[in-house]
Amino acid sequence: MMTDDGRVFPGTAVLAADRKNDVAAAASADDEQNMFLSANVGLFGFGTGLTAYQHQLESLGFSGLGVRAVPHPLKETHGPLIGSQRCESCHEPAYRQWRRTPHARAYQSLVEADPPRQFDPECISCHVVGWHPTEYFPYEGGYTSIDETPHLTDVGCESCHGPGGNHLQAEMHGAAEEQERYRKLMVITRQESRDGQCATCHDLDNSPDFDFDLYWPGVEHSESF
Ligand code: HEC
Ligand code: HEC
Ligand code: HEC
Ligand code: HEC
Asked: Which of 82, 157, 210 to probe ligand 4 with, by most ligand atoms within 8 A of CB?
């Protein structure tokens, strides 16, 4: 979803692009990947049970499943994903608040599911940073595994604010105008979240009771508390 000043919400961007056939590469990657996943559910899923299917997913890995990463829709403007922990040193109150929310435990919920589902693309997509929530494919530089990308587990700062690479770089080494430009790009307003950004993950299948006014207080944060 493109806002009037040119920012794009992660997730909705590719959905919209798919519809318009703008991002042909992302769209065809989707189709193939979804076909592959469906085929696998057919082959291993119902016949041998969910637990066996999860073991199958674990041993194949994402590349073995044919799940390929596509460029993040915000890569050009925002740079790479850096992980929530990197924000802590400069945004301590927001970070501390986020740590107390279920978003910071979203990956663990999959590990504790019965059977565990942290290798299943159709589950991790909303429970980590850097995947398309409902098309189940990763963006380049997004979560790949607990060993390779431990900083990208859970629903992180960048799941809502977009990748922080350029912002971090500018704060460390950039000139004042550059800092200003990338700070602005990191802003997401409450209205934008209300208008659909939260619902990219809080959809009817996974969060049927979602109501912005009831849920927002559960994750609200600012620089002052
Ligand atoms: C090296 C320090 C530093 C790091 C690391 C950093 N920021 Fe910032 N950020 C700032 C400064 C300084 C500002 C401008 C002052 C302010 O508004 O808080 C800012 C502004 C922002 C704003 C705009 C706030 C507003 O109301 O205008 C957001 C949103 C933001 N940062 C999010 C993040 C996120 C998310 C991360 C991690 C991915 C991050 N920042 C990492 C220093 C940093
Ligand atoms: C990238 C996907 C994603 C986005 C975007 C997202 N959420 Fe979530 N949210 C989740 C997941 C996954 C959980 C479940 C976490 C867990 O494992 O307990 C969750 C849980 C929550 C909870 C806890 C609900 C409960 O039952 O305790 C609240 C509150 C919440 N989200 C609010 C929001 C709001 C408000 C927004 C938008 C500003 C938002 N979320 C955006 C994925 C997301
Ligand atoms: C499209 C995004 C999305 C996908 C895909 C997704 N989830 Fe979630 N999940 C959420 C959201 C959002 C919540 C919070 C729901 C709420 O409280 O309203 C959640 C909550 C949960 C919780 C509850 C955490 C708790 O303790 O209350 C578990 C467990 C969970 N998901 C497991 C899974 C599993 C297993 C899969 C794969 C079959 C999956 N999720 C796929 C978005 C998603
Ligand atoms: C679920 C989505 C979501 C997550 C996760 C999230 N934010 Fe935010 N953040 C928002 C929204 C929406 C606002 C705007 C709030 C408003 O305007 O009242 C905001 C506001 C901010 C601001 C400006 C606050 C102010 O005082 O004006 C900063 C800084 C910030 N977030 C940093 C972070 C950092 C750092 C993290 C991770 C530790 C994080 N956010 C995680 C959605 C999110």
From this structure: 157
**C-beta of 117 in contact with ligand 4 (< 6 A):** no
**Residue written as token pair 């040119």:** 6
pLDDT tens figures, 77-116: 999 999 999 999 999 999 999 999 999 999 999 999 999 9
Please give the number of the atom of ligand 1 that sits closest to the Cα of 163.
Answer: 38
Kindly report the protein residue whose alpha carbon is nearest to atom 26 of ligand 1.
187
Separation of CA 108 and ligand 3 centre (Å): 11
DSSP E strands, the chain: none
36-62 average pLDDT score: 70
Domain ranges for the chain: 12-218
Q: Which of 19-28, 62-71, 152-161, 216-225 has the highest mean pLDDT?
A: 152-161
For the residues of 91-143, what is the DSSP string, one character each?
-HHHHHHHHTSGGGGHHHHHHTSSS--TT-HHHHHHHBSSB-TTT--BBTTS-
Q: Supply the pTM of this predicted model.
A: 0.89
